[in-house]
């Protein structure tokens, strides 16, 4: 049986490695083109490409999956099954119709909740206490296909998007491993999604990273951990971007009562930077001033002109 695997980031790597370890016949790996990274803009392969090349698998990197050339390249592999995991492009119907066993996707949410490109980040930002993996048949809509199997993964209070990406990547590989034998044998049940329960996890924008200090301490905490380690949250200090990479968990301290406007710095101590929030205060513990590296708030405080009464906007 010919399998084509389509994926790009580290999230997809455990699923690809599982297929290799289980001896499945992977006739091709499709991933996004190499992208420039870092200050020197060095062209870097995707994590999936690195694994594929290590195991001598053919790699395709089309700029546009919808192009006739890309479709022809995948068709030439004669896939019986296509498996995707965070590939990063919409798969056209011409591709979906190729394999006799269909196209399946390893999706990082409990569908129909959090369809879309940022399900893990959005779940954390929204304060969810659990998420999971859904393996589904792909359809032309955005994550609308029939579900095959699901597994629940708790979101702990200390989890960030980074830790949840790792947990879900391995949960996805395990669920895929358990699902494939029944799928290949024709023993799986297709469960249509209830569209009335669907929610969407749009890709994050710069606006999603801006901290609104009038929100509750818990909302701000969830926002920052949902953005770590990819972008962090940010506010403005003296007209420049001031990034926030870690906030002390609400409930581990007594929020300050204050009549100051939200965003006002209430204190600067070895515990961090206390900032007025909508329901009390939050403590910033890891920050990044404009043009500087990420640092502990204690280190920042030792050499800063920020003082009590400063208003972050």
UniProtKB/TrEMBL annotation:
Catalysis performed (reactions): L-methionyl-tRNA(fMet) + (6R)-10-formyltetrahydrofolate = N-formyl-L-methionyl-tRNA(fMet) + (6S)-5,6,7,8-tetrahydrofolate + H(+)
CDD domains registered for this protein in UniProt: FMT_core_Met-tRNA-FMT_N (cd08646), Met_tRNA_FMT_C (cd08704)
UniProt keyword terms in alphabetical order: Protein biosynthesis, Transferase
Residues in Formyl transferase C-terminal domain copies: 204-303
EC numbers for this chain: 2.1.2.9
Binding site for (6S)-5,6,7,8-tetrahydrofolate: 109-112
GO MF terms, alphabetically ordered: methionyl-tRNA formyltransferase activity
A Pfam match: Formyl_trans_N
Ranges for domain Formyl transferase N-terminal: 1-177
Family listed: Belongs to the Fmt family.
Family annotation (PANTHER family): METHIONYL-TRNA FORMYLTRANSFERASE, METHIONYL-TRNA FORMYLTRANSFERASE, MITOCHONDRIAL
Record's function text: Attaches a formyl group to the free amino group of methionyl-tRNA(fMet). The formyl group appears to play a dual role in the initiator identity of N-formylmethionyl-tRNA by promoting its recognition by IF2 and preventing the misappropriation of this tRNA by the elongation apparatus.
Protein name (Swiss-Prot/TrEMBL): Methionyl-tRNA formyltransferase
Species name: Paenibacillus sediminis
Organism phylogeny: Bacteria, Bacillati, Bacillota, Bacilli, Bacillales
